[in-house]
Amino acid sequence: MTIALPAARAPRPYRLDLSWPILILFAALLCGLIILPMFWLLYYSLVDRNGAFTLANFKTLIVDPIFVEPMITTLILAVSSSIICCAVAAPMSWLVARTDMPLRRTVRALVTASFVTPPFLGAIAWELLAAPNSGLLNKIYRTVTGAPQDEHLFNIYSLGGLIFVISCYTFPYVFVLLANALDRIPGDLEDASSILGGRTWTTARRVTIPLALPALVAGALVAFLQAMTLFGSPAILAIPAGFHTMTTKIWSLFNYPPKPGLAAAASVPLLVLTVLLLRAEHLILGRRSYSVVGGKQGDPRLVRLGPMRWAALSCVFVVLLCPVFLPYGALINATFSPVATSFVSFDTFTLQNIRFVFFELSATKLAVKNTFVLGIASATIGTLMALVIAYLTTRRAIPGYRTLGFLATAPVAIPGIVLGVGLFLSYARPPFVLYGTLWILLLAFVTIALPAAYQQLQSAFRFVHTDLEDASRILGSTRLRTLRDITAPLLRTSVIATWCFIFVGVIRELSAAIMLFTSETKVISVLIFDLNESGDLGAISVLGLIMLVVTFAVVVAVNRIPGFSEARLRNA
Amino acid sequence: MTRKTFEEFPIASVFLGRHGRACPGHPCLGSGSKDVDARVKPAHDGGNAASRRDVLRASGAIFASGVLPGTGSFTQHAHAQAVTVEPAAITPALVQAAGKEGKLAFYTAMDLPVAEKFGKAFEARYPGISVRVERSGAERVFQRIGQEMESRIHAVDVVNSADAAHFIVWKRNGWLDSYLPEEVARHYPAAFYDPDGLWVTTRVWLSSLGYNTNLVRPEDAPKSFADLLDAKWTGRMVKAHPAYSGTIMTATFQIVRELGWGYLEKLAKQKVLQVQSSTDPPKKLALGERAVMADGNDYNLIQLKEAGQAVEVVYPAEGTPLVAGPSAIFKSAPNPNAARLFQNWLHSLEAQQLLVDFARQHSAHPQVREKPGAHKLNDIKTWKDDPAGVEKASEEIKTRYAQLFKV
After folding, report:
1. pTM (2 d.p.)
2. Mutation for B interface: A534, A537, A542, most B CBs within 10 A
3. Which ipTM score applies to this complex?
C-alpha cells in the first residue's frame, strides 16, 4: 500500500506525480462506501414507484401512528438510556481513575468485557434471566419469598426492560470516555487548588468536575446515539412486548411486500439526528483542548477512600453483575440444560445443545466460516485503508487530504441499519450487484469500522514525530526504507490493535448484516437472531459462548501486545 | 396415466371421516359471524363451485372440497386435469449425478431440529450429499426467495413452506421445476400434488391451542378460541406472528374467515407475548413463560409433551386451523439432480414415516403408520385450508394484524 507514497511526498520532475491518482482512488473508494448508499437512500425516500418526485413517504412518517409511536418510543429509550449510563458510569469511572479502590484493573477489564459483548446476545441472556415467568431471577425471587406463580420481580419484555438491557451494554462507552478524561486531568491542578486552601469538595467542584464535564456530555451523546440506533436488543425485547422502535420498524418494512421507499424515508430522521448530535459533540469536545494541553503532568492524585474502598468495590461489582456475570451465567446454564430456563443439575446436565450446534445444525459451518472470512478481510482492508488515509492526512502528503479525512470520519454518523438500507438499495440491482456475495457485507463492515480505525491510527501517526523520519532520510535511507525501519516498527502496536478491534467489531455486528445477508452469506450474529425467532435458546447459548470465547481471545491477545494501553479502547 | 382414487388406500379411512360432515364452503374473509353453516357460502372463484363439487363427489375424490392439505384451489384442477408429467423414480443415474453435485440447499419453514433431522437422514441414505438447511418463517422464506430471484441469486434448490399460497405465486412466476416423484404418483391421493408436478404436499399439521400443565389445571384450560378472550388469560398468553410464520398466516386467515376480525380485535387487548415463529409458542409454554398459547404448531407441543414437558394440546371447539406444507424444486436450482433426489426421497415412505414418528405431523402417504394413541386427524374438528384465499388476503392480514397488535 505504501509503495506509492515516496513519490507522493517528494515528487521529482521525471517521475509521475502519484498524489492525484491516490487521492482520486481513495476518494472514489470512500464515495462508493458512503456517498453512493446515502444518495440512493435519499433518492428512494423521495420518489414513488414510477420514479416521480414525492413527499408521500415523509408525510406517512409524520402522520401515520405506526411510525409516530416508534419515534416517540425511540426518543424515550435513547434519553433514558443516556441518563442511566451517565449516572452509572460517572461514579464508576471516578472510582477506577481517581481513587485507591482495590482491583481497579480488574474492573476495567470487566467493563471491557461488557463493551465487547454483542448487545443482542446480552438481550437474549436477559430474556433467560428476567422473562416475567420463566426468568431465572424471577424464579429465585418466587422461591425465596414464596410469592405466587404469576408474580414477578422483573419483566424484561417492557420498555423499562429494554432501557435496562441497552444501558447495560452502552454504559461502557461513557465509562471509557470518562475514565480516560479523568486519567488525563493533571494532579498538579488539583494540588494547586488544595494548596490555595480548597477543600476536597471545592477542588472537585471547581477543578475536577469542570474538566471531566465535556467528556461526560460527550458520553451522554454517544450513549444516546447507541441506544437510538441499536437494532438487535429492541427486535428481541420490544416486539414480544408489542411495540416497535425506529430500527425494528425500518427492518419490518423489508418484510414481504418490501417497502424500500418508506424504509429509506424512515432512515432519514435517524441519519439527521446522528449528524446533528455528533456536530454538538464536536463543539463540546472541541472546547476541552484548553484544559490539558501539553507540558509535563503530575500523576493524578488518588483519593483515599479508607474503609469505604471495599464498599465501593462491592457497589461496582453489583453493577457489573448486570452486563457480565449474570448474562454469562445464564448462557452457560442454558448451554448445559435441556430447558433453557431451568437450573442445570447433575441429573439434567446435557451436551445435547452442543451436539446439535456442532453436528446437526447445518448452518453452523458456513456461518462460522463467513464470520471469520469477513472479520479477517474487513480488519485487514479497514486497517490498510485507515493506515494510508491517516498517513496522508497527518503528513499532509497530498492536496485534498482534509477531504479524505472527512470522508473517513463520515460513516460514524451513519447508523448501522441505515447503512444497511443504503447499501442494499445501491448494490442489490444492476449495475452493481453485490447483494448475495460477501462483498456487500465487507463494504458495510469496512465502512462501519473506518472512522474508529482512522482516528486510532491518526493519533498513532501524530505520536511518531516527523523528526525521526527526517533523521533517517538525512542519514541517507530512502523514504521506503524509512517507512520500513522507522515508522512501521513504531506503529506496529497501534496497527495490530486496530486490526483486532475491527475484527471484534465485525463479529458482533448485526444491524447492517441483518439487511444485507442472504442464505449463503449468513454470519453468526444473523444466525443467532434467526434462532431467536424460532425460540431455539439452547443453540443460541452455544453459539453465543463461541462468539464470546473468540472475542475474548482476541482482546486478551491485544492486551498482551507490549506498549498497548487500555486508553486505546476510547477509539474502538 | 390412471390415478387411483383415495378410497383404495387403507389409510384413507383416517381422512374419510372428515368428509362426512358438511363442508363449510368458502365464506368471505371479514365476515364477523360465527354461525358458519347459516351463511351464504360463495366459492372463492365464483359460481361454478357447486357444480364442480358435484362432479368431484361423483368422481369419488372426496378431498376435493379442500378439507385436506395443500388442496384448496389446486384440488379442483388436480381432478379436472390429468397428470401431465411422467413420474420419475430414483435411478442409479440420478443418484450418481446428485452425488457429483454433492450438496443442496433446503429452504424450509419447519421447526429447525425437524428440518435438520430430515437433512441428516437424507445424508445417511445418500452419503456424499450434504444438505444445508436454511430455516426461517415461511413468510420470511418467501420474501428471501423473492429478493434473491430479483437480484438473480440462485441459491435455493428445494423449498418446503408452511404457506401453500406461496406455491400459487411461484407457479405463476414460472419459477418451479416440474418433477413428480414416482412414489407420489403411485400412492398419494391426487389432491396432494400438482398435476404438472410442480409441488407435492409434504406434511400436514394444525395450529392448535395449548397450555402448560404446571400453570393451568386441565379443567381450567381454555377449550375454545372464545375462552381465550376471558379476562383471566390477560397477560398469560403467547402468540406467533402471521408476517413471519406461514402456519400463523394460514391460521389467521381461517380464524378471520370463521370468527371474524372482531375476535382478533378482542384478542389483541389480552396483552399477548408476541413471538415470531409458530414453533416458538410451544417452546415458551414448555419454559413456563406463558400459561396458554393462542396459536402455534401442534406438532411441537406433541413433541415436547412426549419428551416429558408439562404441556398439553387443545384443539379448540370452534375448529382447528389446518395447515399444509408443500415442497417444490426451483427451476434455477444450482444442484438440480440433488434437488430431485431429495424431493423424491422426502416423499418416500422412509421420510414420511419419519415425519409421523419424529416430526409428529400427518402424511399423505397411505402406507405410513400412525403412532398408537396419537390424535387422529379425523377425530379433530378442523377448518378447511384455502391457499388461494390466503394468497389474496395475505397483505390485508399483515396490515390489519400490525394495526391491532402494534407489531
Report:
1. 0.88
2. A534
3. 0.89
